[in-house]
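To: structure subgroup
Subject: Chain for Friday's discussion

All,

I'm putting the inputs and outputs inline so they're searchable in the archive.
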Amino acid sequence: MQDGSGAYRTTGSTCLHPLSELLGIPLDQVNFVACQLSALCAAFWFRLYLSPGETSPAVRHAFATIFGIYFVIFCFGWYSVHLFVLVLMCYGIMVTASISNIHRYSFFVAMGYLTICHISRIYIFHYGILTTDFSGPLMIVTQKITTLAFQVHDGLGRRAEDLSSEQHRLAVKAKPSFLEYVSYLLNFMSVIAGPCNNFKDYIAFIEGRHTHMKLLEVNWKEKGFHSLPEPSPTGAVMHKLCVTLVSLLLFLTLTKTFPVTSLVDDWFVHEANFLTRLCYLYIVMQASKPKYYFAWTLADAVNNAAGFGFSGVDKNGNFSWDLLSNLNIWKIETATSFKMYVENWNIQTATWLKRVCYERVPWYPTVLTFILSALWHGVYPGYYFTFLTGILVTLAARTVRKNYRHYFLSSKALKAVYDIVTWAVTQLAVSYTVAPFVMLAVEPTISLYKSGHIKDADTQLCALHGQTGLGGAILVFYDHSSDEHAPGRPKIVQQGADSQGLESMVH
């Protein structure tokens, strides 16, 4: 918990240090969990005692912002200044820039500031091992700043006939006030772990129009309702808290038992045979997932507890609270293709990339979306190993799928075999592709590759990948609005995975 000089390896609060030592969990992670659990309690209180019918929107904005600022300072200490500086700079752009340029200026300032912070953590703080990772909230705020700037530009600077149906629905017709702006960016429900959401949805939630607005988007009378109901989020919150608890238990057992550092152990690199290495790689990468499941599901539950995240009525007539969900665990674990996998991982980031880049750039949308995704995630070398591997695998997959998949669709038996094989290959393929992403640095990635993993497996995996039903895009190929590699920054460097708080693992 301390570096060589005896200083705590955090810039946030140290009041929970005794608990951190008792549990054997890094202080950053304890602070993160404490803030999110406090946010959950605050969310219930916010919904019950500051309900829209009894409290003005200004008061709800103010309390949401004050709580959010407190949690950021508690987790990150003086590093939270970066967040506040970025928010103030971009609000200055919002009120002073011309409508024709507001989205450009906001985008370049927000992404530029975020990139500078990413670079400083690698080249100034040596991968940030002894410093608090404050980039997570910056990444979320950057998404929101750019999302709002583009939606304001759509609402005030473009003709309605030039907008897509979704852009027209989300267009903002008036610049937000300062209170609305900071509340949207810094509210306690999403400032630590996200997810990104739309400004109009957030304002509708604050003003008490959120659930009714979503009900009116569907023909709710056909679902058996004769008047607008008042759906309760309690059931959804309880379900997500159960998932969160199971994920936490898995994190404390599996993740500790199979750390990412084991991929560069001498036994793995020099002694294990190919099949053993492949299976062990799968186990290690599976063990790295619970922390993301925990953080993202808890963040979703916090928003739902406050009454935010209602998405309408599903085909069975049940109320849905998945508007802000960042993943679908069942579909991830049963995915039989990369397309299915990435469409259900870090959903909100994929949506952001589609809305601010892929749908808007006039040329090379896939390439530019790749560049934006890479810059947003950071400048760790491991990210780029994953991106490049994913591109090669995708190209091979598309070719093989096109030429061979139809042979397996002639009978149910063949289709069943196909599904089983493609599930196994997809899960192994994801592990193979994403391993450098979670190891971050060049040295451990090269060590993994030099173990024979590429020499023995690359050709086989590329061929097998093609049979996984990879009709869509992998990684940053957002033809299907997917972003599969948002799994944060757990370090392969010894101490690193523990020194980075869960708040740094959820983006």
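Points worth raising on Friday:
Strands lie at 312-313, 319-320.
The longest helix spans residues 412-439.

D.
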